[in-house]
């Protein structure tokens, strides 16, 4: 496999030695940035056509963001990168991109020996709910037409500890694997490969296996949660084929939720 082209943002510098594993094997466009506020924003702001599989990775992400514009904590021991996917034509395929991304991270973490879970809609946690990965998917349009889906991933990899303000809610691969340290470029490469493989699975087989994999690693079902945005309490029961969450409301009715921000509550109903 030939070495991929190296594209450097004018504000950054080449970091080829640190990320040599990616440079040697990634078959698509790679934009490696010394620093950037957000790899998602970087790809969204690119002009012209973006190749399917374009990967933007950075050593320092100064303005990482999660859903609803919230900041994402990032340091030199974590990874931050985004992958550009062609926007699927089928709406069901499009709505399953967050599921695809979560499964890509889940598969890599599991292969590295970490016992992790998925939390709807976009988090990877340990078995106690401490977060080690956030995923943000954003649509890139041209002339009002969906062209790409940008999948941004931030993953805590080699942190041995966290600042006091996040120590109770944050987790890392290193802590989960008995102090094992990992090559950050190799972790990026593994997740990106899983992402493209899962994308092909999604288009060719409608994502049934991806949904099953997600559900098998979800610890939410049967436990009460609250949607913080709508102050609604419910119990998740299942994931629908389009990636929405099937829930039982407090009045016993069964509905689906397609977006939200959910937290577990300490009591049941």
Any overview of this molecule?
The chain has 269 residues and is of the alpha+beta class. The chain folds into two domains: 6-216, BirA Bifunctional Protein, domain 2, CATH 3.30.930; 225-264, SH3 type barrels (Roll). The chain contains seven helices and 13 strands. The chain has helices spanning 20-25, 39-44, 91-95, 97-111, 173-176, 184-205, 208-216, and strands at residues 6-7, 30-36, 55-61, 78-86, 117-119, 123-125, 131-142, 145-156, 225-227, 232-239, 245-249, 254-257, 262-264. An eight-stranded mixed sheet has the order 1-2-3-4-8-7-6-5. Helix 4 packs across helix 6 and helix 4 (97-111) packs across helix 7 (208-216). The protein starts with 5 loop residues before the first strand and ends in a 5-residue tail after the last strand. This is Biotin/acetyl-CoA-carboxylase ligase. Keywords: Ligase. It comes from Desulfurispirillum indicum (strain ATCC BAA-1389 / DSM 22839 / S5). GO terms for molecular function: biotin--[biotin carboxyl-carrier protein] ligase activity.
Features:
five-stranded antiparallel β-sheet, aa-tRNA-synth_II/BPL/LPL, ligase, Biotin/acetyl-CoA-carboxylase ligase, eight-stranded mixed β-sheet, SH3 type barrels, alpha+beta, biotin--[biotin carboxyl-carrier protein] ligase activity, BirA Bifunctional Protein, domain 2, about 270 residues
Instruction: Give the distance, in angstroms, between the N- and C-terminal Cα atoms.
Output: 56 Å
Tally of DSSP helical segments: 7
From the alpha-carbon coordinates, what is the Rg to the nearest angstrom? 18 Å
Largest sheet: 8 strands, mixed
Oligomer: single chain
Low-pLDDT residue intervals, each spanning 5 or more residues: 1-16
Helix content: 10-25%
Keywords: Ligase
Domain BPL/LPL catalytic: 15-203
Pfam families: BPL_LplA_LipB
GO cellular component, one term: cytoplasm
């Amino acid at each position: 496999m030939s070495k991929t082209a190296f594209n450097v943002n004018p504000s950054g510098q080449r970091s080829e030695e640190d990320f040599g594993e990616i440079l040697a094997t990634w078959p698509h466009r790679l934009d490696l940035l010394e620093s950037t506020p957000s790899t998602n924003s970087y790809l969204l702001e690119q002009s012209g056509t973006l190749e399917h599989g374009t990967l933007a990775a950075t050593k320092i992400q100064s303005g990482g963001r999660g859903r609803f514009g919230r900041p994402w904590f990032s340091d030199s021991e974590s990874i931050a990168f985004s992958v550009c996917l062609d926007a699927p034509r089928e709406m069901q395929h499009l709505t399953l991109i967050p599921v695809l991304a979560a499964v890509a991270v889940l598969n890599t973490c599991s292969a590295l020996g970490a016992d992790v879970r998925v939390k709807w809609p976009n988090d990877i946690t340990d078995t106690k709910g401490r977060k080690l990965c956030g995923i943000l998917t954003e649509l890139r349009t041209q002339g009002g037409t969906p062209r790409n889906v940008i999948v941004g991933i931030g993953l805590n990899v080699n942190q041995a500890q966290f600042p006091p303000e996040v120590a109770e809610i944050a987790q890392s691969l290193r802590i989960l694997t008995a102090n094992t340290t990992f090559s950050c470029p190799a972790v990026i490469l593994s997740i990106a490969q899983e992402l493209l493989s899962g994308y092909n699975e999604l288009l060719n087989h409608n994502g049934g296996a991806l949904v099953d994999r997600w559900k098998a690693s979800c610890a939410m079902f049967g436990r009460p949660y609250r949607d913080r945005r709508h102050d609604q309490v419910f119990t998740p029961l299942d994931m629908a084929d389009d990636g929405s969450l099937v829930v039982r409301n407090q009045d016993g009715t069964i509905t689906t939720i397609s977006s939200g921000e959910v937290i577990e509550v300490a009591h049941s109903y």
